[in-house]
Amino acid sequence: SQKIEQNSEALNIQEGKTATLTCNYTNYSPAYLQWYRQDPGRGPVFLLLIRENEKEKRKERLKVTFDTTLKQSLFHITASQPADSATYLCALAIRVNRLAFGKGNQVVVIP
Amino acid sequence: DAGVIQSPRHEVTEMGQEVTLRCKPISGHNSLFWYRQTMMRGLELLIYFNNNVPIDDSGMPEDRFSAKMPNASFSTLKIQPSEPRDSAVYFCASSSSSRDTGELFFGEGSRLTVL
Question: Which of B42, B101, B107 sits opposite A43 (nearest CB)?
Answer without folding.
Answer: B107
